[in-house]
Amino acid sequence: MNNLLAFWRSTAGKKVVMGATGLVMIAWIVLHMLGNLQAFGGAAKLDAYAAILQGPAHELVLAVRALLLFCLALHVVAAVQLTLLDRAARPDAYARKVPQAATPASMTLRIGGVLLLAFIILHLMHFTSGQLHPSFIEGEVFRNLVIGLRVPAVALGYLVAMAALGFHLFHGAWASLRSLGAARPRPNPLHRPIARALAIVVWFGFSIIPVAVQLGWLTLPGE
């Protein structure tokens, strides 16, 4: 126990925790995206997929949610503590505010993380519990998806959040591997083809859904 506490309290330990929890959440994000894309197969296909998750696989889903919540909590706490440690170690602003190796993804990593945390809460209240949904019906996933994303402001909010997710993944996926010793520092931070491809695929996979609803590609049965 003492060794675990010492590991957690160290800067290196917090970075390893962020890396490991980040990879777990990335794996779930990809699976979640693939599940959402079944909406293009129609209402019956998406609702049948959701019924499996809420029926035979319900216990597994609950276990995964508990794991994700645990990872998210560790990820956020480690990120906040590392930020505070970084500011305490360098209280004076740099003479040159933009580091040479900075990218838009790395410069917006922290604010993007805050935005994504807020989005997760709103997303759950929108499509899981239904408090923020204009006409939520339990179990009718396709209908809830289409009606929820028909509101232009909501669709725009999702697109902004998915852009933040793409930036976060581009820097975060590579940083996670680096923290775990699976990737080496690169002189050019844009040369991260796997992280870039992952970020683009995830951004597109999630963003295409609100776009499809707004353009009328995804409609309710009978419309």
The description of the largest β-sheet is:
none
Number of strand elements: 0
Provide mean pLDDT, rounded. Answer: 86
The portion of residues assigned to helices is over 70%
**Structural class, judged by helices and strands?**
mainly alpha
**Low confidence ranges:** 93-101
Query: What percentage of amino acids are in beta strands?
Result: under 5%
Elements, N to C (H/E): HHHHHHHHH
Overall, the morphology is elongated
- Give the termini distance in whole angstroms: 60 Å
- Rg calculated over all Cα atoms: 19 Å
How many helical elements?
A: 9
What report would you give on this structure?
The relative contact order is 0.14. With 223 residues, this protein is mainly alpha-helical. It has helices at 2-9, 11-36, 43-54, 58-89, 104-107, 109-128, 141-149, 152-179, 193-215. The protein has one domain (2-215). The termini are far apart. The model is unreliable at 93-101 (pLDDT under 50). The protein has 9 helices and no strands.
Provide a short characterization of the protein structure:
The protein is mainly alpha-helical. 73% of the residues lie in helices and 0% in strands.
List keywords for this structure.
mainly alpha
Q: What's the SSE blueprint?
A:
Layout: H1 2-9, H2 11-36, H3 43-54, H4 58-89, H5 104-107, H6 109-128, H7 141-149, H8 152-179, H9 193-215
Helix pairs in contact: 1-2, 2-4, 2-8, 2-9, 6-8, 8-9
